[in-house]
Each structure stands twice: as C-alpha cells, then as structure tokens.
Amino acid sequence: MASQDPKSITVESLPQLLENDTMVKLAGVDVDGILRGKLVSKKKFLSIAASGFGFCSVIFGWDMHDRTYIRELKISNAENGYHDLLAIPDLSSFRRIPWEDNVPLFLVEFLDPNTQKPICACPRGLVKSQLEKLKGHGYGALAG
C-alpha cells in the first residue's frame, strides 16, 4: 500500500490501511523513556481503535530492569493491584517497523480509567497537558 499521511488516518480508514496485516503493535512510553508495548491481532486492534483498551499500570511501576520501584506511585502499586489504565491508540502516530517485518505501530496515550484524563506519569500525556497550558496563555511550541 502507498504511504499514507498519519494525520489523515481515521478509525474508518483502518481496515483498508491494514488490509495486508495480521498483527499490530501498540506501545506507550514509560517514565524512563522506554517503549513498552504489546502485539495484538488486527481484529482485536480494529475493535479497540476508537474506545481504547486496558493496559497494566505496572508500566509506570517498573524501572529499566523490569523491577518495581521501591517507592511506588499512587497510580501503579501493589496495593491497587497494578490496575489497568485506559490506553487510547493515537492514530496519527502510525508507523511501520522495518526491522519487525514492517508490522504497523501505533503509540498509545494512557488515561485514568475513571476520569478519562491523561495520567501524570505518562510522558506523552504530560507534554500534551503542558501544550494545552501554553495554548491557554496564547503560546505554542515547535520542535525539530
């Protein structure tokens, strides 16, 4: 398939975009900047693309060696059973991973399942909320 501008991808365009794929990688960034993800079937991905899916909060409780932090976060700890966060695929983040047989990749944004707001420990959510604050003051940001 010809390359598609990720900003133009919609839930409705996903079946055509992924017509030759069987699996999709979904990943989020943890507090150490490590990409943590899972590989799901295309059928599963299409069923959760709009509404999101549960993703274990331990992603924000592990260090870079996959050991839990001694001082646990309120959103990710043994007491709350490392409950699921809501992970929403960011369709505009679509890429293919050439070194993994060109598997499609979508980054996710982690939301609090109760409030539907970005969680404070999510780097993408943090940047997004800070950009909103800047916008509220009449400013914007550019990078790259």
Describe this structure in words.
This protein is α+β, with helices and mostly antiparallel strands and 144 residues long. It is 17% helix and 28% strand. The chain has three helices and five strands; from the N terminus they run αββαβββα. Strand 1 (23-29) and strand 2 form a beta hairpin. The longest helix has 14 residues, at 123-136. The chain is globular, with a radius of gyration of 16 Å. The model has no long low-confidence stretch (mean pLDDT 87).
Please give the alpha-carbon distance between the first and last residues: 28 Å
Structural class call reads alpha+beta
Q: Based on DSSP secondary structure assignment, what is the total number of beta strands?
A: 5
Task: Give the percentage of residues in beta strands.
Answer: 25-35%
Q: Name the CATH architecture.
A: Roll
Q: Radius of gyration, Cα only, in angstroms?
A: 16 Å
The order of strands across the largest sheet is 2-1-5-4-3
- Examine the coordinates and then state which fold CATH places here, giving the name of the CATH topology: Ubiquitin-like (UB roll)
Q: Helix proportion of residues, in percent?
A: 10-25%
Count of helix runs? 3
Low-confidence stretches: none
Q: What's the domain count?
A: 1
Mean pLDDT: 87
Q: CATH superfamily name?
A: Glutamine synthetase, N-terminal domain
Shape field: globular
Secondary-structure element order, N to C? HEEHEEEH
CATH uppermost class? Alpha Beta
Largest sheet: 5 strands, mixed
